[in-house]
UniProtKB/TrEMBL annotation:
Keyword Glycoprotein: no
Superkingdom of this protein's organism: Bacteria
Organism per entry: Clostridium acidisoli DSM 12555
PANTHER family on file: STAGE V SPORULATION PROTEIN AC-RELATED, STAGE V SPORULATION PROTEIN AEB
Protein name: Stage V sporulation protein AE
Keywords: Membrane, Transmembrane, Transmembrane helix
Length: 118
């Protein structure tokens, strides 16, 4: 059942993004920024936490999960370290994921020799 719920939650998030790109004049970059912002807002009100509870990785893997992670770690850091946590919480909470993305992106660039479009 966990796999099914992850598939449904993640699929709905992706379908919403695809519909926004196909049916509106929004560019993919604006959709991504909107999704991160929506993840932060829903995370701040603990609405996204409910999606994570029922959808697991289906909610945390899409880009909205990054926004949720930013909000969650910032709130945790503010509660433990004061107002300075508003500036350091998001960085501390997402540093591992960002570092891994950079490392693996670099490794793939070395292996596959990327080319520019055009």
């Amino acid at each position: 059942m966990d796999y099914l719920m992850a598939f449904i939650i993640g699929g709905v998030i992706c379908v919403i993004g695809q519909i926004l790109m196909d049916k509106t004049s929004l560019t993919p970059a604006r959709v991504v920024v909107s999704f991160v912002t929506i993840g932060v807002i829903l995370g701040a009100f603990n609405i996204y936490g409910f999606l994570v509870k029922i959808g697991g990785a289906g909610a945390t893997v899409p880009i909205t999960g990054f926004g949720y992670s930013l909000a969650k770690s910032t709130m945790k850091e503010v509660n433990s370290g004061g107002i300075l946590g508003a500036f350091t919480g998001g960085i501390k909470g997402t540093a591992g994921g960002i570092g891994a993305a950079i490392l693996f992106g670099y490794i793939m660039a070395l292996i596959f020799n990327p080319k520019t479009k055009g």
